[in-house]
Design a protein that fits this description.
globular; 10 strands; alpha+beta; about 40% helix; about 325 residues
């Protein structure tokens, strides 16, 4: 962004900002350039790519809906698709003070308080929004991949996962599949990308949900798909303190399916493009599954298949 373009944005929307006080921010994604405009605003400019532009259009519909529902997020100040200042549409948002959450390896009390509030905020979103005006179809069209066998076969053939481990994943996913296969009837307005980088905390307290670029209508359990596995129980408790999740009796199974399928899919992406840097890292999901099993306290563990042939613990000594 040039100084002339920055001044044009500030002038067009009458922002009380000195054009010289603009600062480019680091972003965890790779599809937008993000700038701080003074102390009150954030400017997001997508790359000139259909996917990036599509995300900008999605957020222009989703953010006003979220703020109207009372969800804590930075409000949309301006959306501009005139292409007169930049060659792509852009948005200006209210700046929300805080930093992205950084989950610890263990569920510390400070983590628990934040993620409990994240769950409550999701419940407010899901159970408050009943209709969204989207005449141009800009919201994300969500779907859930169900063909786990093809992914596992590809990973085995590529030498990424050993066949006996693929069998364990197949057993797990086959047991979980009925829960997700019947989940299409659950339709709520979802954030769609609730990774830790899109959750702000300030002074140890929950601050806001940001980056609504993947929002749309889908099974509300999808909003737990990027919450660290060891914190899912905490977030679910926060959610259920407001209202039950749709299909609450299969919520844990659907969340676990999404986590495992995402982990396997990301592992495949790493195989295809070793040179690319991903956020989160492709191996994170499988490490989360391992850590969850070692910790041994999560309610999600009851859905894990026991390794065949291991009928008693090995003797130590």
């Amino acid at each position: 962004m040039t100084p002339v373009q920055a001044a044009a944005v500030i002038d067009r929307y009458q922002l009380d900002v000195d054009p010289r006080k603009t600062k480019r921010l680091n972003s965890s994604g790779n599809v937008h350039s993000v700038y701080r405009l003074g102390d009150e605003y954030i400017l997001k400019i997508p790359r000139d790519h259909p996917r990036a532009i599509g995300e900008t259009l999605t957020a222009s519909v989703a953010v006003p809906v979220a703020t109207s529902a009372g969800v804590r997020t930075g409000s949309l100040v301006a959306f501009d698709d005139s292409l007169e200042i930049f060659s792509v549409p852009f948005s200006v948002f209210e700046y929300v003070r805080g930093d992205s959450v950084t989950p610890s390896a263990r569920a510390l009390p400070s983590d628990a308080a934040i993620w409990h509030d994240v769950g409550r905020e999701l419940a407010v979103l899901h159970h408050t929004v009943g209709h969204v005006d989207d005449p141009r179809g800009w919201l994300e069209a969500w779907s859930r991949p169900l063909d786990h066998a093809t992914i596992l076969t590809g990973l085995v053939e590529a030498g990424v996962v050993a066949s006996h481990l693929a069998e364990w994943f197949d057993e797990l996913l086959t047991a979980l599949k009925p829960s997700v296969s019947s989940a299409n009837r659950y339709r709520r307005f979802v954030h769609g990308d609730l990774k830790p980088g899109n959750i702000l905390q300030c002074d140890g307290l929950f601050g806001a949900l940001i980056d609504w670029d993947d929002a749309g209508w889908f099974d509300p359990a999808i909003d737990f798909a990027q919450i660290p596995l060891h914190l899912v129980d905490v977030a679910l408790a926060g959610y259920r303190s407001v209202a039950p999740l749709d299909g609450d009796d299969t919520a844990e199974q659907r969340i676990l399916w999404d986590h495992v399928m995402t982990a396997l899919t990301e592992l495949w992406r790493l195989r295809i493009d070793m040179a690319k840097v991903y956020h989160p890292c492709p191996g994170d999901g499988l490490v989360e599954v391992l850590a969850l099993a070692v910790d041994g306290t999560s309610s999600l563990l009851e859905y894990f298949p026991v390794r065949r042939g291991l009928t008693q613990p090995a003797a130590r000594g």
